[in-house]
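To: structure desk
From: M.T.
Subject: fold request, one chain
Message: Could you run this one when you get a chance? Sequence is below, nothing fancy, just the single chain.
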Amino acid sequence: MYILAIESSCDETAAAVSKDGREILSNVIATQIAEHRLYGGVVPEIASRRHTENINAVVKEAMEKSGLSLSDIDAIAVTYAPGLIGALLVGTSFAKGLSMATGKPLIPVHHIAGHIASNYIAHKDLKPPYLCLVASGGHSHIVEILDYTKFRVVGRTRDDAAGECFDKVGRVIGFPYPAGKFIDDAAKNGDANFYKLPKPVVNGSVYDFSFSGLKTAVINMAHNAEQKGETLHRDNMAASFQKTVAEILTEKTILAAKDLGYKTIALAGGVSANSGVRQKLSEECEKNGFSLYMPPLSLCGDNAAMIACQGYYDFLAGKRADESLNAIATLSLENI
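Reply: Done. Structure tokens follow.
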């Protein structure tokens, strides 16, 4: 079964073609990072305009690289939630038009479910049930994967997401947007124990995250150093911050796995590319005898291959949409 997928939830215009879900025939991404870097973050209006300009060429290239024609495609999958509403509207509108023109079924895909599905592409033996840590620029979740299309969120951020915290801290200590890779690189040259940073706790919710206090602590340290005329050791701060985030994410995930009885853990989302998070989670999973699955770096960020994969399982579960499908900025995994 061949699925054409479209992803436009933030600042990446992407299209991909999959065969039976887990085999990717093409995966094309048009990134906007260089333009948004000028503003220190994603500008929604600019993102929407660039999606409009890029989407036709990106879909065309994905089809050409797959070696298939539209007549060979069995269904069209598209990210409809969550994300920047204007950006999502470009992808959903294009997918609806293509579905109506070709008569192909339309599959609405949840963006976070797509990130989780990125592991299915790389790991053919992975199957539910298992526990997944999803950490990205907009989300930090601990999710029970009950089935390919059934999820239960057991932990979530109460304020900033992990990736958002990386970007805001990176800006304060002098790194360009997106700061994740720059912090990761700098951390390799720093002392992770140089700065003592807090690990915020959410009272009454042992699996929930809070990164706002950590972000504020780093900002205050940077401002205090500036006011006193002192030099902030950027590499040491990067290493200390990355270590703290990795420990927070890992400790709560391992606790949830033990409490809920899971022996298999997966990692997904943009922050899953971070070497500190990957290493810490790997160490703790090995220590506890858990199996760990992580997507390759090429599938950690937003892409359409993961949407094609999840779209396949959504299609098998009978999920369909018609011309009334609309983009949704915020939607829980449990409500799909």
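Reply (cont.): The mean pLDDT is 96. Let me know if you need anything else for the meeting.
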